[in-house]
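Final report, closing paragraph on structural work. Over the funding period we assembled a curated collection of sequence-structure pairs, and we close with a single example.
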Amino acid sequence: MTNLAIAANGLRKSYGDKVVLDGVDLAVPEGTIFSLLGPNGAGKTTAVKILSTLISADPGTGDIHIGGHNLATHPQAVRAAIGVTGQFSAVDGLITGEENMLLMADLHHLPKREGRRVAAELLERFDLVEAAKKPASTYSGGMKRRLDIAMTLVGDPRIIFLDEPTTGLDPRSRHNMWQIIRGLVTGGVTVFLTTQYLEEADELANRIAVLNDGKIAAQGTAEELKRLIPGGHVRLRFADPAAYRSAALALGEVTRDDEALALQIPSDGSQRDLRSVLDRLDSSGIEADELTVHTPDLDDVFFALTGGTTIPNQPSQSKETVR
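Its predicted structure, as stored:
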């Protein structure tokens, strides 16, 4: 069985009568990216704060293990194993980027020479060498986030909590941050990511959990979550009207578009489902001129699981086209 970097059972947290987390179970394998999604106020940041020892869970919460350490009995060992980058930058704008790094090295009680070596390596790794001597207040949003993560890595954590790390960044800076996050995992780090950008979770996460009303509404890979939502279909288009009519008869339950010579067949987008459609065409000696697989995207999943807009019957996103 894969070792778990994070394992939480029955995570609970309330503030007065307000229940924020109501029995949340989480399991994050080592060396993966796990993304926690949810509407604003769903409890994502609260979960991060509990798992990173910043606040305590409520009585009745089950065991929580981070990096193999019991959170309740060995919080110091947990803190030594993790790094946290919150929604708001921890960078001190009054001092330089290098001074921010050296301050973090001091907080980790690194010897002066070791601290300077680590700071220099991380500044180079995150492309901040040229700006290292400049006040951090002069940095762009993307540079500040890079410095923030570099500071988090000073203590060489094996588990990093990234709480909405790309909020407010322009698209180019967001994509640069994605590359950094992928690089962390390549180096063996486990990343626990909360984000308000569904595309970000789709791009990065090995597994995704959707938090709603204090509970996990669903979790799995991005593809597994998309298959929970109705509306997926295969669309076949024909140039030959005779082939179109023959395919409609061979496939049975289809939606016809006689003007476009196109057929739509309900499908979950899986390889097995697609093969079934192709086998039925092959057995009748019919060849489509174009085949397109349409599947719901994470936006559809999010809205369905969090009580949002009704899922459309014909999602606009096309995931694959075969000609």
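The chain has two domains: 4-220, 233-322. Residues 309-323 have pLDDT under 50 and may be disordered. We thank the funder for supporting this effort.
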